[in-house]
Amino acid sequence: MTPLEPQQPPTVPAPVQAEQIRTNMRRISQRQWWLWSSAVMVTLLLTLGIASFAFPGLLSGNESLYSFRLDLAMRGLVGLVLLFNVYTVYQQLQIHRIQNHLSDQVEALGKMEIRTEEVYKLAVLDPLTGLHNRRSGEQRLAQEISRAQRHGRPLTVLMLDLNGLKNLNDKFGHAAGDELIRHFAGRLSKAIRGSDLAVRLGGDEFLVLLPECKPDEVLHVLGRLKDLNFDYDGQSMAFSFSAGWTNFNPGESPQDLLKRADDALYVNKRAARAQEELRAAKT
What we know:
Layout: H1 14-60, H2 63-124, H3 134-151, E1 155-162, H4 165-172, H5 174-191, E2 197-202, E3 205-211, H6 218-223, E4 229-232, E5 235-238, E6 241-247, H7 254-282
Antiparallel strand pairs: 1-3, 1-6, 2-3, 4-5
Helix pairs in contact: 1-2, 4-5
């Protein structure tokens, strides 16, 4: 019997937390405004109090009455200052409490952003290469097909397959094969446009979605993938890949489109293998 995992406290949605932060910021501004307003008001009251008690005594010339009134004025003003100081300390404590609460909310938002990014990576990205995984690639393909059909724009699907990965794994181990896949994924990401999407289907197979791409422009992408070299364990090795591509036909399903691209890939792969065997036989 497996132990129960500790339950996590319920999280507040990010929009709600953002609204709470905005509310707290408004409360801090209001309290600071009242604090400054109170300071101005107390200063004016002090000035008026001193003037109201000092000027009549000076005008009357009665020193004893003037001293008595001035003493009362000073006592009242001291009491007013003490009350104002107590009010100021209270407001500062409230502002400090709100700021602490605001800091907690900002920290919670930061943690939520990290969790959201982690969930996104697990759900959308391939953990080995950082490219989109098969599921997200198929979802994007359906969206691009819908867009191409709606606007009558071209869509090209490019399939890629690394050559000789099995031999590399047998000779150097699977760590070398993983490093080769990562290296190729990095080159592929740099070879495509920002509007394109590179997907790792699994193993050594890759898919690239090329919206609004003319057939001859696929060759530009493939040209950027030339001269592939791979360094591992102090050795530099050249490697190659096979490619096949096709264009979307209106009304075609995603499965049919991928199948045609896959068929084109393996036709080219068999042709390249036959050429290599022919060259080997001649030598």
